[in-house]
Amino acid sequence: MFATLLNELVALLIHACNIKQVLYKTSTNEETLRRELILKFKRDLVKLAAVLSIFFTGISVVNVPVANNGQEVQAATVSDKRKAIVSLAKKQVGKAYVSGSAGPSAFDCSGLVQYVYRNAAGVNLTRTTYTQVKEGKSVSMSNLKKGDLLFWGSASAPYHVGIYVGNGQYVHAATPSQGVRKQALSSYFYPSAAKRVLD
To answer: Residue ranges of the NlpC/P60 domain (predicted)?
Structure first.
């Protein structure tokens, strides 16, 4: 463990020196290199924090958030992932509905779900409602948690999917005329099934 810690410290110092050398350069290519070095430095800091945690406490840090080129930072715990999913889903409200699209500027219903889960929680869901309904475990509508998936139509072959965001509301890519919306659950358009991917 000490050897691992020492290696991480050495790598961190090397990257710090590289960044210092590049900071004074201003050309376009060197600016790109500078940004890449800083990003790698941040990643190494996170790795070092995980190693230090194990070294001093014996407790492993699982799924430590890592910066990834401007994408949403992935959450560490199930609770954090649920919050991140809700937050990212709400950020898509107002964007366009385009059949076959999976972001970042337009979505269809299953594309929105796939995009949000991948970028907020690091979970790679399949692409269609027909396959997404087979993921996770079934839950009752009276026991929903934030981030659960809601399906409409046949439970085995649904035609629509959305993300439950709490307080009786969900976010979904509705129709070409409505785009991505947040709306309340309604008895006139009530889900036929709910699935929990995170547990």
So the answer is: 79-199
